[in-house]
Specification:
With about 425 residues, the chain is an alpha/beta fold. It is built from 13 helices and twelve strands. Helix content is about 40%, strand content about 15%. A seven-stranded mixed β-sheet has the order 9-8-7-6-10-11-12, with helices on both faces. The chain starts with 5 loop residues before the first helix and ends with a helix. This is Glutamate dehydrogenase. Belongs to the Glu/Leu/Phe/Val dehydrogenases family.
């Protein structure tokens, strides 16, 4: 009998299959990003496996009674990636394509994002595999409340704080907060963020992610000599993130020349009327059919002649197949994980500056942190105070990442991971292993 290779055995059993770097999907992309940053971690590299293994993974069955009396079952997730720097923090998404790999990666990117802007949170994420457009409001409420009860053993104001994400909003957060509060016997406004203002939500939260995208974009433009005034901007996704960022760039004198979302792809070389487009989206649910633009093929969006490209939809949008078409000088990632590592390399070789999600879209979690702090103190700030604090934190975080990128001659994504991973692993090392 041929002896088995012991090194192969140890490698095969080192990681569960779903943590394997060869596993396709968002988690595999995240693991590649960690591998790229490991050589820059110095003595902290001995702890790097901490970053490759989520602390907790909870998969739950979410059964609800539908309006017609049927019992339907949905699969839900809550993943806590790392809690070394504080309680878990991350959104909950309702989408028909949600997978465990996706939620794991999103939770890990939250760890990086929170550490990058230096807010005292770890990373977490949740989701339910469901198309919420197929549910009535009553069914959506029952789904949300049942899911909240199922993950109730993990969440809490000092344990893990969910927030809105794809297809979830302030109403969903209100249901989650109420369910948790009823189950624990006391009102706990700080268990979620992104709530309605009347329930302890923060002013400025809805626009926060888009405002952060705009803020770091302006900082990068200054450092690279790109004049925002007159710059041509293309945006994928025109909801809270892309719509807010597009409006702020337009207000600063830029021209939004193309927009794509799930309803269509439109362009106007002279610049879209962003205010009118936002009104159209509010009335119809998407950009498709907007009178002030011409329709174009979805695949042609990536080749639009523009200076700034903002992918603000879902992950995995910029790939090795379309990265070569991109003409923008600056890509600002409003979405989580929109660019694959192969595409990153192509853009870097083309001289395109990519502002990675883990710094560019951190405005949302920053204002979520403000909301959490306000809930604990029961003292609320004005919107001007919130926006000023947000801009300052984003500017300081970006300046730190830029300095590391220049020091090590690396991309901004790798620089952000260097900053964040060192903070996480310093905390892990200082806390030690117990027991």
């Amino acid at each position: 009998m041929q002896a088995k290779d012991s090194s192969a055995l140890s490698t095969a059993h080192a990681l569960p299959s779903y943590l394997n770097p060869d596993h396709l999907g968002p988690w595999g992309i995240y693991l590649q990003q960690v591998d790229r940053v490991t050589p820059y971690l110095g003595s902290l590299a001995r702890w790097v496996e901490t970053l490759k293994r989520p602390k907790r993974i909870l998969v739950v069955d979410v059964p609800i009674e539908m309006d017609d009396g049927r019992i339907a079952h949905f699969e839900g997730y809550r993943v806590q990636h790392n809690l070394s720097r504080g309680p878990g923090k991350g959104g909950v998404r309702f989408h028909q394509d949600v997978t465990l790999s996706e939620v794991m990666a999103l939770s890990a990117w939250m760890s990086i994002k929170n550490a990058a802007v230096n807010v005292p949170y770890g990373g977490a994420k949740g989701g339910i595999r469901v198309d919420p457009r197929q549910l009535s409001k009553a069914e959506l409420e029952r789904l949300t409340r049942r899911y909240t009860s199922e993950i109730g053993l993990l969440i809490g104001p000092t344990k893990d704080i969910p927030a809105p994400d794809v297809n979830t909003n302030g109403q969903v957060m209100a249901w989650m907060m109420d369910t948790y509060s009823m189950n624990t016997g006391a009102t706990a406004t700080g268990v979620v963020t992104g709530k309605p203002v009347d329930l302890g939500g923060s002013l400025g939260r809805v626009e926060a992610t888009g405002r952060g995208v705009f803020t770091v974009g302006v900082e990068a433009a200054k450092l690279t000599g790109l004049n925002v005034q007159g710059a041509r901007v293309a945006v994928q996704g025109f909801g809270n993130v892309g719509g807010t960022a597009g409006k702020l760039f337009a207000d600063a004198g830029a021209k939004v020349v193309a927009v794509q979302d799930h309803t269509g792809t439109i362009r106007n070389a002279n610049g879209l009327d962003v205010a009118a487009l936002l009104e159209h989206v509010g009335n119809t649910g998407g950009v498709g059919g907007f009178a002030g633009a011409e329709a174009m093929d979805a695949a042609d969006f990536w080749g639009v002649d523009c200076d700034i490209l903002i992918p603000a939809a879902l992950e995995g949008q910029i790939t090795k197949d379309n990265a070569g078409q991109i003409k923008a000088k600056l890509v600002i990632e409003g979405a989580n994980g929109p660019t694959t590592p192969e595409a990153d390399d192509i853009l870097n070789e083309k001289g395109v500056l990519v502002l990675p999600d883990v710094i560019a879209n951190a405005g949302g979690v920053t204002v979520s942190y403000f909301e959490w702090v306000q809930d604990f103190s029961s003292f609320f700030w004005t919107e001007d105070e919130i926006n000023a604090r947000l801009v300052r934190i984003m500017q300081e975080a970006f300046a730190g990442v830029w300095a590391v990128a220049q020091e090590h001659k690396v991309t901004l994504r790798t620089a952000t991971f260097i900053v964040a991973c060192k903070r996480i692993l310093h905390a892990r090392e200082a806390r030690g292993l117990y027991p």
